[in-house]
């Protein structure tokens, strides 16, 4: 099984944070992440894939790490970008067989937080 990987930098939106956003601001945030992820996917030259399992690993600088599932809005925007750029034909169960959200890891220094997405081709 072949794996493909890309990373996207930016503020990781938590589920709690998403719930507090006005719907218009949320839509802007999702659009930014989908666009940025789309560019990173293209730069990684990920080919069209039929079925994948996805593993998401967030990295944070700030002192309090999110819990494992809290970065779901960020990861969902990245998965949507896979469809936007044509890597996947959809993000339903016919195309995405599993989605694993790993607990965030601490990174030192200054700079943007980021999430790394790994796609593992699923057996058909």
Explain the overall architecture:
This protein is of the alpha/beta class and 124 residues long. It has a single domain (3-121), classed as Holliday junction resolvase RusA (60s Ribosomal Protein L30, Chain: A). It has 3 helices and 5 strands, in the order E-H-H-E-H-E-E-E. It has helices spanning 15-20, 23-43, 72-84, and strands at 3-9, 52-60, 96-101, 105-106, 114-121. Strands 1, 2, 3, 4 and 5 form a 5-stranded mixed β-sheet that branches. Helix 3 (72-84) links the parallel strand 2 (52-60) and strand 3. The longest helix is centred in the N-terminal third of the chain and has 21 residues, at 23-43. It is globular. The termini are close together. The model has no long low-confidence stretch (mean pLDDT 90).
Task: Looking at this protein, list some descriptive labels.
32% helix; single chain; 60s Ribosomal Protein L30, Chain: A; alpha/beta; 26% strand; 5-stranded mixed sheet; globular; 124 residues
What is the N-to-C order of secondary-structure elements (H for helix, E for strand)? EHHEHEEE
Beta-strand percentage range: 25-35%
- The CATH architecture assignment turns out to be 2-Layer Sandwich
**Assigned CATH superfamily:** Holliday junction resolvase RusA
């Amino acid at each position: 099984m072949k794996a493909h990987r890309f990373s996207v930098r930016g503020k990781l939106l938590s589920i709690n944070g998403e719930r507090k956003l006005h719907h218009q601001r949320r839509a802007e945030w999702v659009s930014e992440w989908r666009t940025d992820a789309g560019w990173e996917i293209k730069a990684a030259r990920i080919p069209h894939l039929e079925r994948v399992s996805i593993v998401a690993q967030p990295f944070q600088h700030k002192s309090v790490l999110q819990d494992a599932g809290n970065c779901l809005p960020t990861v969902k925007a990245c998965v949507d970008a896979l469809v936007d750029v044509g890597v996947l034909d959809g993000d339903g169960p016919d195309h995405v067989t599993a989605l694993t959200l790993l607990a965030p890891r601490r990174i030192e220094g200054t700079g943007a937080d980021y999430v790394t997405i790994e796609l593992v081709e699923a057996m058909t």
